[in-house]
């Protein structure tokens, strides 16, 4: 079906969806900037990349928010788990880089802006 044959309301909704998708990507980019810094601080403090207690608190908090927002809590948890898995992967890489720098006596500076 050509776009010109599409009902106007669908086109308007798609435009809004595209805007929301862009906002979500920007929000995720900001979130990962914050979690990168957390990973750097964990590496310096020799803390583990994962924090099971924090994760459990977040599951409870986000499940409640999802329910209040009318979003399937299981979907919200799956989405959170996907993001957290990536964050932990980043934290592990940061910890490895930092540990390697310590072994070589050349601790990399913490880049707080990337």
Structure description:
The protein is mostly helical. It has one domain (7-103): Chorismate Mutase Domain, subunit A (Up-down Bundle). The chain is 75% helix and 0% strand. It has 3 helices and no strands. The protein has helices at 8-44, 52-69, 73-103. It is elongated and about 65 Å long.
Task: Fill in the keyword field for this structure.
Chorismate Mutase Domain, subunit A; single chain; mainly alpha; 114 residues
Short synopsis of the structure:
By secondary structure, this protein is mainly alpha-helical.
Summarize the main sheet. none
Global shape: elongated
Q: Mean pLDDT, as a whole number? A: 90
Nearest-angstrom radius of gyration?
Answer: 20 Å
Order of helices and strands: HHH
Give me the CATH superfamily: Chorismate mutase
* Poorly predicted parts: none
Give me the oligomer status.
single chain
Number of strands: 0
Helicity, as a percent range: over 70%
CATH-level-2 architecture: Up-down Bundle
Q: What name is given to the CATH topology?
A: Chorismate Mutase Domain, subunit A
